[in-house]
Known about the structure:
By secondary structure, this protein is of the alpha/beta class.
Amino acid sequence: xxxxxxGLGRMGGNMRGRLRSAGHEVIGYDRNPxxxxxxxMAELVERLAPPRAVxxxxxxxxxxxTIDALAAYLGEGDLVIDGGNSRFSADAPRxxxxxKRGIGYMDVGVSGGVWxxxxxxxxxxxxxxxxxxxxxxxxxxxxxxxxxxxxxAGPVGAGHYAKMVHNGIEYGLMHAYAEGYELLxxxxxxxxxxxxxxxxxxxxxxxxxxxxxLDRALDDDPELSNLSGYADDTGEGRWTVxxxxxxxxxxxxxxxxxxxxxxxxQEDSPAMKAVAALRQQFGGHPVHKRP
Length: 291
């Protein structure tokens, strides 16, 4: 099958490689000419036979402008697939806008990171049945072998919604491993923290790919001394918590893990200063003065 691909970064570039390995013809465009197959989106569209299918794999912040620019070259019967981490609420308006020009739209949540080239990607798809069926060969090539790794989650927006929840869960899982790691490092009894993590990788109820990645990180840096304790968030955790509030769904772990990332960015927490001051005021407890 022939597919256009816009965005050839860490994810998009590997997806191009996996699809080509499966025998598909992929024509990719990226602003970086060193990795791009064509000089422009216009040339990309010209090289695709109608009806065209173009997968957009760019950061959420530039997805809207990228799809609008791409749509200027597309026409009736063409199909746009957004595989980035867009907010689900943008999907329906985008599909409606493209639909007025006869251009189809699908949203696909993609998980697999830099390991997807070798292992395959988990795909969560939102869109019409006919569009999903049309891209079935592409999905089959991208997903891992076997019965798992793909779902047609629902109509337009469902794919990104599922990916949002997936990433919210990821926040909670990562933070649970991180807290366990910190407790192990604080213990007077445990002398081989990386070894404990490694022992959990097989036969344990907490074994997972994330645990494998933590073990890999500790192999490279046993005390993680080369890293700063500052963790970014790219939006999906916030959106998950916002949806939990909207739907009155208790989401204690995911919310706490999101707030922990915020705390990681404070060198000297104003809130904890206030707590220390209050303890001193009501109980005369000692405070720690800054040097």
